[in-house]
Amino acid sequence: MSQKVEIKWLDESEEHDYSATESFLSLIYDAQAAAKYVKQLRRVLTMEFKAKDIFRASGLSPLGVSNSHIEKDRKKIPGGQKPSPILPV
Question: Which residue from 81, 85, 89 is spatially nearest to 47, judged by alpha carbons?
């Protein structure tokens, strides 16, 4: 049986997370709306939810471990590095 590891998240998202979020949102919203959402995200307090609940609420399936970004963050956890919180819209 694998040992349970407590994930310690960064207290706040990093700047590159906001720019990546705005880039993604501008694919589905106009640039003004995407910028507005990111501005609002910067003011939101961090909240904690279980990953399974986030996926249920979003209606999305979890990305596999073959996803390079997932793998990069997964490797941070045992070394004590803190991954950035997610920015749901």
Answer: 85
